[in-house]
Structures are given as structure tokens and as C-alpha cells.
Amino acid sequence: MPITTAMYSFDETNVNNAPDKAGVYALYDGSTVIYYGRAQGGTVTIRSRLQSHLSGSEGSCTKSATNFNSELASNPITREEELLISHKRAYGKLPRCNERVG
Q: Is 9 helix (H, G, I), strand (E, B) or coil?
């Protein structure tokens, strides 16, 4: 099941208001998922990961995102894996910015 929370513009204001907790997030180009990621908690939060993507530190593919949403998760590794498997089953491939990782 995809992340079903509200979608926000991928801009500094919204990213800086993203959850400062562990979980998963999706980056979009329009309505198309281009990347699923995880934040394991501690100093690596949904907010800090999104800030890293927005700044371009994670590469140009995710920096070009237009929207994002996120979901708190007690086990982000497992939830991210579920999202990637579900996407691959539905579309025959991983989101374009996840392709480099598997």
C-alpha cells in the first residue's frame, strides 16, 4: 500500500515542517513517484532526509522533485522495502530515482 498522507510542495517551507521523526517518504514529479526513502530516527529524520534531497546532496534526480509525502513508521527499513516491492509489482520497475540502488 502506498503512502496515503497529504502531499506537499517540495519546497523549503514544507520540508522544514516535515516530521522530525523516523519513517518513510515519497518524492514525486507531479503525481508520479520518483523515489521512496527512509529515515531511521535519531538524527536521521524524515525532515533531515528531505532537506538533504532538497539541497541536492542526494543528487540531481531527487532534487528535481515537485511534491512529497511521508509516513511515520516504527520500522522504516521494512516499510520502505514494502513500498519498493509494491511499486515494482504495479509498474514493472522501481521509481526512477531508486533504480540506482536496486
A: strand
CATH number among 1.20.140.20, 3.10.25.10, 3.40.50.1000, 3.40.1440.10, domain 8-101: 3.40.1440.10
What would the pLDDT profile of 34-72 be if each residue is shown by its tens digit? 999 999 999 999 999 999 999 999 999 999 999 999 999
**What is the identity of the amino acid at 102?**
G
Q: Work out whether the CA dihedral 88, 18, 44, 73 comes out positive or negative.
A: negative
The model's pTM is 0.95
Bridge partners, 69 (sequence order): 26
CA neighbor of 36 nearest in space, from 27, 23, 45, 47: 27
